[in-house]
Design a protein that fits this description.
Blueprint: H1 2-25, H2 29-36, H3 40-63, H4 72-103, H5 106-114
Helix pairs in contact: 1-3, 3-4
């Protein structure tokens, strides 16, 4: 009945937050490395990107609410928490990604840009 629906909704919400976290954590760094063939300095930037994605995934896992609020006000607050967590995750990854991408040469950028979403 109603309890089953609430439990399913809670599982769905928990799963959605977990998928966002695992999606960020699974950035295909090995494919990126193979595609752009970074030099040592660029490798350090790639490591910073890896660290930032790991931090962002942890942030989403810890800060994304997993309880389904029952009131409209509570649901709105939970939405705000999720959006805030996602924004902070983006703000964590973006500087490292921009720094790494900015360190690439034109050919490397071209290869990086050709990575498909399934690959990266």
């Amino acid at each position: 009945g109603s309890d089953d629906n609430q439990q399913q909704a809670k599982r769905d919400l928990t799963q959605a937050c977990g998928e966002r976290a695992s999606g960020i954590a699974s950035l295909p760094l090995q494919q990126i490395e193979r595609a752009v063939q970074p030099d040592e300095a660029q490798r350090a930037g790639l490591k910073e990107l890896q660290d930032a994605t790991s931090e962002a995934a942890n942030l989403l896992r810890s800060d994304c609410p997993t309880d389904r609020a029952l009131t409209p006000v509570g649901r709105l607050q939970a939405m705000e928490q999720r959006l805030d967590a996602m924004l902070r995750a983006v703000q964590t990854v973006q500087p490292a990604l921009e720094k790494f991408y900015g360190s690439l040469g034109d050919e490397q950028k071209e290869r990086f840009n050709r990575l498909s979403p399934a690959e990266g």
